[in-house]
Amino acid sequence: MTEQELQAIEARERAATPGPWNGVGKGFETYIEARNSTVVTSAYIDDEDVAFVVHARSDVPALLAEVRRLQGLIKQAEWKRGQFGDLCPWCFGLEVNGHKAACPAFGSAT
Hints:
Number of helices: 2
Distance between the termini: 33 Å
Strand order of the largest sheet: 1-2-3
Radius of gyration: 21 Å
Strand content: 15-25%
Largest sheet: 3 strands, antiparallel
Order of helices and strands: HEEEHEE
Helix content: 40-55%
């Protein structure tokens, strides 16, 4: 995924009605609401689609945050590799979630 694609998703996410979203009704009388206003209406929407739409409001920001976090780890590993050549970047203190990561090859952080 390119930076431009991620930025476009982030822009759409920021422009959408803030959550949480809720599915209200069933079948032909289903709508999605957020903060007491209707966000999405449909002539008919089944329960699985309602669940997907409702959860997308919180899932998309979480997925974007995880992509950005992983991109940061990749950049950190690339920087370490640039500093230390082909030596294992995990062995040089790469941090994951604020903790020194264990080396996948040797099993312990140094």
